[in-house]
Amino acid sequence: MIRALALALLAVVATAPAAHAASPVGLTDGFYVDPDSNPAVWVRDHAGDGRQAAIKANISTKPIARWFGAWSGDIKTAVSGYVNKTGTKLPVLVAYNIPGRDACGGHSGGGAGTPEAYRAWISSFASAIGSRPAVVVIEPDSLADFGCMDGGKVAERTAMIKYATEQFKAKAPNTWAYLDAGNAQWVPAATMATRLDSAGVRNVRGFSINVSNYHTTAASTAYGNSVSGALPGYTKPYVIDTSRNGNGHNGEWCNPGGRKLGTPARTGGGAEMLLWVKVPGDSDGRCGKAPGVDAGKFDPQLAFDLVHGY
């Protein structure tokens, strides 16, 4: 009898799932639609504008990531305030405050003043989410934008990103965090895999592709599979920014014409998730079709043109 009970207990232990953090997708019922996103605020304030209906129907009512940086004020207050109001929906957040941000492109420069300041900032970011379910994209372009940086700066940045992964692993157990891996035509897949590994991608859910860019989902999926396959002895899932990739990439990255909205946020679709990370209608910088609009500022004409592919 005792032996039978012991064998039964061993069978239960053997078949029981290993303890792990919960899936934020499983803990929620769809993606959060931010009522205070840049396009939503514009729609609310411009009921008489001829572009309003199209932007409302196609952009402001869709799930879009919320970006956080120095403009957010106290980061713990900003992040906790945001995730606390999402209810049963899954919020997507972007951490965008790495020192020397956009070092080579220049249009979105800025970031925390020192590595020490960044560590305090990103630690507070992770703490503010805590056990709430969330998706976080960590520092778009930061591991791809090495072309104008010397070895010391590269090592310093890599260490900061690795610290960020450790903070999310320790303090935000129900968050799926993704290190940004650039886009399909920026850094060779094997090189990016090495950078991701050095930056601690093992500590988080995976990596993100095509943030604020225009490459097709098919091209991004091929690149993501190559990057994952080149990781040393393990693979990782990835997410794709589809906010503006409906017409693909035309060789330009800064407010190009003829681009179009892509597939709205969903799970699956070739990647683990398709997300609108870049806010459609937010400028890439004073360039292209919006030479007078600063990076991150909403321009209704950019948004309207994305609806129609103009």
From TrEMBL:
GO terms for biological process: cellulose catabolic process. Substrate binds at W67, W186, N213, W253, K278. GO terms for molecular function: hydrolase activity, hydrolyzing O-glycosyl compounds. Keywords: Carbohydrate metabolism, Cellulose degradation, Disulfide bond, Glycosidase, Hydrolase, Polysaccharide degradation, Signal. It is an enzyme of class 3 (hydrolase). The active site is at D141 (proton donor), D284 (proton acceptor). Gene3D superfamilies: 1, 4-beta cellobiohydrolase (3.20.20.40). InterPro entries: Beta_cellobiohydrolase, Beta_cellobiohydrolase_sf, Glyco_hydro_6_CS. Its EC number is 3.2.1.-. It holds the Pfam family Glyco_hydro_6. Residues 1-21 form the signal peptide. PANTHER family: 1,4-BETA-D-GLUCAN CELLOBIOHYDROLASE C-RELATED, PTHR34876. Belongs to the glycosyl hydrolase family 6. This is Glucanase. It comes from Lentzea flaviverrucosa. The lineage of its organism: Bacteria, Bacillati, Actinomycetota, Actinomycetes, Pseudonocardiales.
